[in-house]
């Protein structure tokens, strides 16, 4: 059981890094530091967009418009940290019952 919990938390941590990388890449693209005409850069950005957008889209629909500031990655990261802690708490209470 503990191996499954560790696997789930590792996947959550990996996904948080993908979200952070996606946010940093979007800033670099917005400021013109990274050129998306480069085929490799475009592929990386496209993969990260396809992985993160299904989770970010519902959050963007709920959040109010903040005038060009997108805080949906921050909200998603907080939700993922909450989920990770909740999983460990449930596992801890499950193990304490034995």
Write a brief caption for the model:
This protein is mainly alpha-helical and 98 residues long.
What does this protein look like?
The chain has 98 residues and is an all-alpha fold. It contains 3 helices and no strands. The chain has helices at 2-30, 39-62, 72-96. Helix 1 crosses helix 2 (39-62) and helix 1 runs antiparallel to helix 3 (72-96). The protein is elongated, with a radius of gyration of 17 Å.
Main features:
single chain, elongated, 0% strand, 98 residues, mainly alpha
- Using only CA atoms, what is the Rg? 17 Å
Written as H for each helix and E for each strand, in order along the chain, the element string is HHH
Mean pLDDT: 94
Cα shape: elongated
Query: Mind describing the biggest β-sheet?
Result: none
Q: How many extended strands?
A: 0
Low-pLDDT regions? none
Strand content: under 5%
Q: What level of helicity do the residues show? A: over 70%
Number of helices: 3
Distance between the termini: 13 Å
């Amino acid at each position: 059981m503990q191996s499954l919990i560790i696997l789930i938390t590792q996947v959550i941590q990996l996904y948080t890094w993908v979200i952070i990388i996606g946010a940093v890449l979007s800033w670099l693209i917005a400021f013109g530091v990274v050129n998306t005409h480069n085929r490799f850069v475009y592929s990386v950005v496209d993969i990260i967009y396809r992985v993160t957008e299904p989770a970010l889209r519902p959050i963007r629909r709920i959040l109010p418009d903040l005038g060009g500031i997108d805080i949906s990655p921050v909200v998603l990261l907080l939700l993922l940290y909450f989920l990770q802690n909740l999983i460990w708490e449930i596992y801890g209470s499950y193990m304490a019952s034995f």
